[in-house]
């Protein structure tokens, strides 16, 4: 069985917006494995989660959440991002959004 997931391609935005982007870090990783409250998502991720639910796809891949930030995980995972996007059931691209604080729905 192939796992279906949606991948999100978006812009974090300028530093003054990107600081609000929810991220998985070494510290937040254990909690994120258990639960990530919808209300903690930035608007662009909330919209992607809403789209995934509407499409009845259970999993959503978001770089800020699926790659542990501030570690060497980025060095290992970033070269695989092309595969992540190409194997997704759907890839949501948000070219009209210039910030993680902008939704697209």
TrEMBL record:
Signal peptide: none
Identification of the protein by name: Heterokaryon incompatibility domain-containing protein
Source organism: Hyaloscypha variabilis (strain UAMH 11265 / GT02V1 / F) (Meliniomyces variabilis)
Pfam family, one: HET
Domain of life (superkingdom): Eukaryota
InterPro entries recorded: HET
Coiled-coil stretches: none
UniProt domain Heterokaryon incompatibility: residue ranges: 5-99
